[in-house]
Amino acid sequence: MNETLKTIQQRRSVKKYKSDAVPKALLEQIAQAGIQAASGLNKQSPIVLVITDKAIRDKLSKLNAGKDPFFRSDPFYGAPAVLVVLADKSVPTYIYDGSLVMGNMLLAAQALGLGACWIHRAKETFEMEEGKEILRQIGLDGEYEGIGNCIVGYPDTVPEEKPRKENRIYYI
After folding, report:
1. Cβ atoms within 10 Å of 18's Cβ, excluding its own
2. pTM for this structure?
3. Would the CA dihedral through 55, 60, 65, 71 be positive or negative?
4. Which of 7, 111, 142, 151 has a beta carbon 3.0–4.6 Å from 79's, enabling a disulfide?
């Protein structure tokens, strides 16, 4: 089987990570794979924040958890790195473009032997004043909306393969 197709079929969401740091070179490859995604009219509106600073990562985790009572602990499942995708809201296809960036990064992490998972509530996190302050601190201004958090790390468990629903492809 083609390696790309094999990676797509084997990718699973990882929800338990080792504390080992992910080398910067691997995170750069994942982020680069993300920004290579297709974008509407080639506007390339999404940006990626690669977060390995534990204090910032933990702050984002708390902001994210505050929006969902289901998470009483770390919604990032202990992953040491978070790649946040934001996109310029002035571009009509920004949500779709950012979603493609997230998909590419999830597949890149799998291809590199890492675990990853899409964690929602990036939109809500960066609508809060604390989230906006993080963006200001790194000099990012503009009308960006959080699309998703791609948590990345070395898996501490191997997710089981779950069956896919049937009858989801129709040929005409």
Report:
1. 15
2. 0.93
3. negative
4. 151
The pLDDT tens digits for 10-31 are 999 999 999 999 999 999 999 9
Q: Is 53 helix (H, G, I), strand (E, B) or coil?
A: coil
CATH number at residue 46: 3.40.109.10
Could you tell me the two tokens for 79? Answer: 């992953």
Residue 151 tokens, joined: 């948590």
Cα separation, 26 vs 112, in Å, equals 7
Q: Is residue 163 in some structural domain?
A: no
pLDDT, tens only, 73-87? 899 999 999 999 999
Report the length, in residues, of the chain. Answer: 172
Query: What distance, in Å, lies between the first and last C-alpha atoms of the chain?
Result: 26
Quick one: DSSP state of residue 76? Answer: T
- The total domain count for the chain is 1
Domain that holds residue 101: 3-153
Tell me, yes or no, whether 133 lies in a domain. yes
Name the DSSP class of 80: S
Q: Is 83 within a domain?
A: yes
